[in-house]
Design brief:
- The chain has about 350 residues and is mainly α.
- It has one domain: Farnesyl Diphosphate Synthase.
- About 75% of the residues lie in helices and about 0% in strands.
- It is built from 16 helices and 2 strands.
- It has helices spanning about 10-25, 25-40, 45-55, 60-75, 80-100, 115, 120-140, 145-165, 175-200, 205-230, 245, 250-260, 265-275, 285-295, 295-315, 325-330; strands spanning about 105, 110.
- Strands 1-2 form a two-stranded antiparallel ribbon.
- Helix 8 (about 145-165) packs antiparallel against helix 9.
- It starts with 9 loop residues before the first helix and ends in a 7-residue tail after the last helix.
- Residues about 1-5 have low confidence and may be disordered.
- Bound molecules: farnesyl diphosphate and magnesium ion.
- Farnesyl diphosphate (FPP) binds near residues 126, 153 and 229.
Length: about 350
């Protein structure tokens, strides 16, 4: 793997992330207990989902972001805990539905709900997680934060629809790609940061700035997630890699490649795109075009730019001495491990 992003050392990022999780461990424990209470049901499948979330929670970037921003603006209080619980539940709900849409067999190394119990049950399980998450937001006192969550949930759906309509597009472009990833992923990062700010005592103006910081980080996160799908195509590290291109979902590496490739190169790409399974950097043709035009470096420096922009915005908008944890967090966005 290339040096992931200039100035960011992957091992250091992992160490920082562990330290960060340790620092907020008591809050994360509270949030995780809250999630378990929300999922408390006699239903056998819900019991299993709740156990899976307990044992394989993923990186929990979104609630962690709420905590870090809240910490910078005031005290982490029960409202922040409720909001952080909500965003994590909505995130998990969206993954259940996303895995149905993508027909993914694995998530966090485990069989996905629709593979295990069928699509109909998985739709209901996702809806259940969404509903109990939404109830957590209703416990928080600010109207704007309460409205942000359904607003972003509808944007996530709209963006998934746009992604679906854009499949196998002959004219994939970066603007459309950014619109999709901002809506489906970055917006939830945005409101996680915004609510952390406002619910701990920040102003509406500061909330808007923090929402922008979160959005930029979410964008960098999705670019890295997409790049890994491309770069590690054919591998399984908790989820199958290399499925985007064969499903016609053209992410940043392929968009950049199509924009620069010669007529002959485009024809070779077309053959691969329409015939391959789990393709990306593992294809010699794609690898050579990537190397010729410096595609990977370009994609990674795009992600780096968003991380840098986010950090600079945070630095300007927050009190002195509150930046360390945000900096550690923003660097962790590049970590690829599914846990
Ligand atoms: C992951 O994308 C998908 C998302 C971040 C959002 C999915 C949103 C929906 C299915 C609609 C909204 C649903 C709710 C409940 C609000 P990906 O497929 O690129 O990532 P992956 O590699 O992790 O699968
Ligand atoms: Mg998916």
């Amino acid at each position: 793997m290339p040096q992931i992003v200039e100035n960011i050392d992957l091992e250091e990022a992992k160490a920082n992330f562990l330290e960060l999780k340790q620092h907020y461990a008591s809050h994360l424990t509270f949030i995780n207990q809250n999630i378990q209470s929300c999922l408390n049901s006699e239903n056998k499948q819900l019991k299993e989902i709740s156990l899976q979330i307990k044992n394989s929670p993923g990186k929990q970037f979104r609630p962690l972001l709420s905590l870090i921003v809240a910490d910078a603006f005031g005290e982490i209080n029960e409202h922040v805990h409720h909001y952080a619980t909500a965003v994590e539940l909505i995130h998990n709900a969206s993954l259940i539905h996303d895995d149905i849409l993508d027909d993914s067999p694995l998530r966090r190394g485990l069989e996905t709900p629709h593979k295990k119990w069928g699509t109909k049950n998985a739709v209901l399980l996702g809806d259940y997680l969404f509903s109990v998450g939404y109830r957590q937001v209703l416990k928080t006192p600010d109207d704007t934060c309460r409205d942000d969550l359904p607003r972003v949930a509808s944007l996530m759906c709209e963006s998934e629809l746009l992604q679906s309509d854009s499949k196998f597009s002959h004219y994939p472009n970066e603007e459309n790609y950014l619109k999709i990833i901002d809506g489906k992923t970055a917006s939830l990062f945005g409101i996680s940061a915004g609510a952390g700010c406002l619910l701990s005592g920040g102003t509406q103006e500061q909330k808007k700035l923090m929402e922008q910081c979160g959005l930029l980080l979410g964008r960098a996160f999705q670019i890295m997630d997409d790049w890994l799908d491309y770069y590690q195509a054919g591998k399984k590290d908790g989820k199958p890699r290399g499925s985007d291109i064969s499903a016609g979902i053209f992410t940043l590496p392929i968009i950049k490649m199509i924009a620069q490739a010669s007529k002959e190169e485009k024809e070779s790409l077309d053959n691969i795109i329409f015939n391959g399974d789990f393709i990306g950097f593992n294809s010699p043709v794609i690898k050579s075009i990537d190397e010729k035009y410096g595609i990977t470096q370009d994609v990674l420096s795009n992600a780096q730019k968003y991380i840098k922009d986010s950090y600079e915005l945070f630095e300007k908008a927050t009190p002195i001495n509150s930046k360390h944890h945000f900096e550690q967090f923003s660097q962790s966005i590049v970590i690829s491990d599914p846990q």
